[in-house]
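G.,

No rush on this.
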Amino acid sequence: MGGAVMRYKERLLIFGCGAVGSIYAKSLSLAGYPVSVCTRGQRLSELSKRGLLYREGNRTLRCPVRLVKDSAGSYDFIFVTVRREQAEEAFRQLADSECKNIVSMINNPDGYESWEKILGRGRLIPAFPGAGGSIEGGVLYGGLTPSFLQKTSFGEIGGERTARIYALKRIFLRSHIPFAICPRMYDWQLCHLAMVVPLGDAIYEGGGNHIDAGRSRALMKKTVRRIRSNLWLLKKSGIRILPGEMKLFLLLPEPVLSASLSAFYCSESGERFIYRHAEKARAEMELLHRELYRILKKRREVQ
């Protein structure tokens, strides 16, 4: 066992405590931050009765968090970890919060203007999680995404390096959460969706099973071509390809990409970071599919 855990003063609220929210609540709490969580439905019942339980190796452990019914109170940062179709309602609930720093860890191809209209300008910090997993029987199975796959990415809408961005950086450093400060979060999110929407589509077209999808050469080839086509269109329309590693989809030979994608689908990481989300969040994935290709169509028409 290590020494005593440091205690930090920044008060944090996780708004929405599914798998992703639970992963961040756990990481931040174990690092020594006072973490509150606000959720509803079955997850609220689970947390009320048993607390935040998570699986580590062959043990089930409990993480100290405070359960609250709403966002009332003083928080330094609120992390919004709901699904895309729940975003506007979540922001309406947070509109009257005292907190000035609301971190939106949500897929969003439409930009941030509508969210800022709800919250008020200057409060939103666009971000995206580097985490994946699921809640099974009230227990969290999952964790932070390996740094080489995806870091927690965040930045001001205009790309400025502000005091609150550095404060968020310190929080992630202390919590051992891999992160990247991104100067163009909107570009980053569009590129991310250009990749993950075809990845999710492949699960559904493969019969809902990541192993079957990964073993289909034709489906893996089709998925690579879809990702490439999406990224090329974004690049031609003026979007910067971010993160830089995403450019590999434009540079590497198709057979190499198809083989790599097949191996990833058939791996434990493929199950955790693609299959589980595609299975449990199909409504969100279908919404993001429609939103992405609507935006790509508009960008194609103006070229």
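When you get to it, here's the other one too:
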Amino acid sequence: MAVAAAQPNRSGLQIGSALLTLLVLAGAWAISAPRAGAANFTPPAGCQMTMTVQNRSCTVSQYYTCSADPEGYQRSAHFGQDGLFHMSTIDAETRWIESQSTNSGLIDRLVEGAEDDASFSELIETGRDEFDFETETDDGQRLRHQGFDILTGETVTIDGQDLERTEFQLTTRIADGEVLIERSGSQYVSRDFGRFFGGVETSSDWTGARTQTDDSPVLFIFPGEAGFGSTTPQFDCDQLMTQIPQERATS
């Protein structure tokens, strides 16, 4: 389903991202600095990196799988100019199994028994997937996520990868039903990789503040290629220097 966004600070409490994805075990990820001075991502023992994706909005994402995880699980770690800001895990249906915002330190986990689980296979087979599920933070806060993803029928090729464009809407509410954040826009899905990638979206929170971001992928980098594992984002970083820093959508 749609990729996640880190949640805004509410009433002085940073609510972690609940939207997408079994977390890298605490302390299991590592950053190593090669002689060139740019940091590289090293996955935990028992895990293997599959690709690095450079995105718009000055982020870079590392994707990897771990032998101890159930079949179909995918993990990711996302970096901005200030380093690691989000880690997440999805399953084969792209359900948000667990995620962590490093800014808040909170961990979000999927609550089983959803009204309507996200289903990547349903989206691919029918062109539309509706979802209604809950996540819970490790400090006990529950969030309810309702919305849909649809395939627009448009296929684009980005850096040699064929991606299908989607449109989505997502509303996240706290336990009392108050809307925390609303998101809508377009993203991309890859049948080969079995996952979503970011796109252009608009979000608004409970304060009425609205933001628009473009987290579209630009480069897909694979083992043996220059830039594989790099944690230094390449695109739109100069532009961000003139903007108010904000947490970005991730997958």
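Helices lie at 120-126, 237-240. The radius of gyration is 17 Å.

Enjoy the weekend,
O.
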